[in-house]
């Protein structure tokens, strides 16, 4: 089972256990294909007992996707503060996103498929966090790739997210081989600007 992104190596809290189980179930069966009783059974408690931790399944999804976005933003901003050399920063951003995707495939799947299932306030919160994370990438890309404009840098960042985040659906190599391949492909995609055929 994938770890919840907020876990720190310490024993998971009951909330973290519930969110991790819910992520696995949502990824496998879809948000609407999973009931409260299914989530409770996965963590060894009754469905109604979940309401001591979350007011609803919607609230569970909201916390899950908000926490993913917060972890990615915090990680990206931390890297931007630590790495002042642009190419080094871009490489570390790629490494960070690759590691997150490979280590949390259920969360990546839920994030990709369930934005539309969030309540309006949660959706706005998640999208705002995601935009800020993309801005970290856009700035890094523009500092590395000579002459790239902001819309192109933004499109490139989203394209690379698509490449990296598709891995939960197509992992054919072991984890370290896949990580190395994705890092190489992502950096090449971001920095090697070819000429389009006429």
Write up this protein.
The chain is mainly alpha-helical and 198 residues long. The protein is built from eight helices and no strands. It has helices at residues 14-29, 36-43, 57-82, 86-103, 105-113, 120-144, 150-165, 175-191. Helix 1 packs across helix 5 and helix 7 (150-165) packs antiparallel against helix 8 (175-191).
SSE diagram, text form:
Elements lengths: L13 H16 L6 H8 L13 H26 L3 H18 L1 H9 L6 H25 L5 H16 L9 H17 L7
Short description:
This is AcrR family transcriptional regulator. Helices cover 68% and strands 0% of the residues. With 198 residues, it is mainly alpha-helical.
Multimerization state: single chain
Q: Name the beta content range.
A: under 5%
Radius of gyration: 18 Å
- The helix/strand class is mainly alpha
Number of helices: 8
Helix % is 55-70%
Overall strand count: 0
Overall form: elongated
**Biggest pleated-sheet summary:** none
Distance from N terminus to C terminus (CA atoms, Å) equals 48 Å
Mean pLDDT: 89
The ordered H/E elements are HHHHHHHH
Organism: Kibdelosporangium banguiense
Pfam family, one: TetR_N
Protein name: AcrR family transcriptional regulator
Keywords: DNA-binding
């Amino acid at each position: 089972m994938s770890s919840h992104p907020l876990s720190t190596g310490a024993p998971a809290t009951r909330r973290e256990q519930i969110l991790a189980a819910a992520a696995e179930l949502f990824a496998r069966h879809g948000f609407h294909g999973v009931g409260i009783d299914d989530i409770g059974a996965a963590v060894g408690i009754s469905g109604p007992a979940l309401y001591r931790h979350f007011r609803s399944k919607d609230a569970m999804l909201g916390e899950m996707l908000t926490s993913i976005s917060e972890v990615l933003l915090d990680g990206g901003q931390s890297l931007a503060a630590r790495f002042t050399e642009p190419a080094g920063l871009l490489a570390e951003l790629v490494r960070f996103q690759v590691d997150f995707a490979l280590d949390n495939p259920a969360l990546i799947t839920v994030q990709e498929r369930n934005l539309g299932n969030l309540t309006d306030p949660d959706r706005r919160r998640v999208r705002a966090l995601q935009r800020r994370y993309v801005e970290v990438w856009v700035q890094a890309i523009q500092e590395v790739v000579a002459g790239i404009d902001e819309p192109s840098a933004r499109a490139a960042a989203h394209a690379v997210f698509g490449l990296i985040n598709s891995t939960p659906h197509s992992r054919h190599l072991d984890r370290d081989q896949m990580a190395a391949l994705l890092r190489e492909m992502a950096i090449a995609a971001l920095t090697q600007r070819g000429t389009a055929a006429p």
